Amino acid sequence: MALSRRGLSLLELMVVLVILVAIALLALPSLSNIRITTPTGETKTPTEVATQATMNSVRQAIAGDEGIIETMSHKSNALPRKIDDLVKSEPPAHIVEEAPELVAYDPIARIGWRGPYVAATGQNDEGKPTVVDGWGNELEIQIDFDKDGTVDPTESKYIRVVSAGPNGEIDTPDDVENMKPGENSSSELTLSECGDDVVMFLRYPDYRR
Question: DSSP labels for the chain?
Fold first, then answer.
């Protein structure tokens, strides 16, 4: 007696797909609460780990051996203003205006704009490519720029990248006079000022406790 072999109909396949999607959505909340132990002994969620990895990429893009600081000849007014500067092939407007000699890359001297410095991981509110954290929020670059757009070279070492964290809002003040991380709330950036933000200093040790 011959057995008939009938494949799944399109409707049956769609039903199976809907069931699988529903199961995945039910699993997501529990997966987001999983804690991962890092090599340093800290425990973090997968979202926090992804955010840290992205911020490390940004650190390399800005302060690494071939990052913006190096290729821009350590000129403080050529530092990136916004995180989406890093994903641009062409130099942003402030570099064209304030450091025109660095617009074209010189492969021999290894000086000049050679973007993109990092790959985009999402889009900003305007729908343009940018770098986002594990929660899907655009990262923010903070540095103590003066009103004319320049920055004191001694302050440029405190450049930092900030993730808004789970609440999606930047709590870390970007207008403090002293960008140094420490424990003195009157003159240094403290942990309590940052709320649930993830803050990474790119060129300076983080002394907050």
Answer: -PPP--PPPHHHHHHHHHHHHHHHHHHHHHHHT--EE-TTS-EE-HHHHHHHHHHHHHHHHHHSTTSHHHHTTT-GGGS-SSGGGGG-SSPPHHHHHH-GGGSS-BTTTTBS-----S---EE-TTS-EE-B-TTSPBPEEE----TTS---HHHHTT-EEEE-TTTTS--S-S--S---BSS-TTTSB-GGGGTT-EEEESSS-----
